[in-house]
Write a structure and sequence with these properties.
The protein has 6 helices and 7 strands. By secondary structure, it is α/β, with parallel strands linked by helices.
Length: 172
């Protein structure tokens, strides 16, 4: 796994902690261009795109999970334009907070009618990637239901493994 950070002084330590904690090789990339042959996950509060979308290779999937304000964007208009599938956790949130998508919408390069909710892909109501060369984009804004599903899964696993500590809830 390759990781890039604009803050190089912290990158090596992060890679070492992740390698140790996950038991996989996590290495620092020399620059963002090194990642353009990989699937990409962005997790920043950046107000400017992290890479040039014209360099994204066919078949790439991008998870843009950091920016959640209309004034922030981790991916550029070209990345959005090239994406054959744009998925969001909730259209309502994306319309308000989709700084990654709004410039492409404003320029007529993407229409809200072509943006798909994650639930429709997961349930099979809408197909995911249809061709190996498709560039696909998931723009997450962090919907509470995702947190509830994750918390339930973690609770189930902890219960099955007999780990954790039962806490008494207020009022319960």
């Amino acid at each position: 796994m390759l990781v890039h950070s604009r803050k190089q002084e912290r990158l090596r330590g992060f890679c070492q902690r992740m390698s140790d904690g996950l038991g996989i090789s996590v290495k620092p990339a020399e620059g963002p261009e090194d990642l353009l042959g990989c699937d990409i996950t962005t997790a920043t509060s950046s107000t400017r795109p992290l890479f040039d979308g014209s360099l994204v290779r066919p078949g790439t999937h991008i998870n843009a999970i950091g920016s959640n304000y209309a004034s922030k964007a981790e991916v550029d208009v070209e990345t959005v334009r090239r994406s054959t599938l744009v998925v969001v956790d909730a259209l309502e949130s994306a319309r308000l907070e989709g700084g990654d998508l709004l410039p492409a919408i404003d320029r007529g390069l993407l229409a809200w009618e072509h943006v798909v909710e994650l639930g429709d892909v997961v349930s099979g109501r809408h197909p995911g990637r249809e061709d190996e060369s498709d560039v696909t984009l998931f723009k997450s804004h962090g919907v509470a239901s995702e947190d509830v599903v994750l918390a339930h899964e973690l609770w189930k696993r902890a219960t099955e493994q007999g780990v954790g500590e039962r806490l008494k809830m207020l009022g319960g």
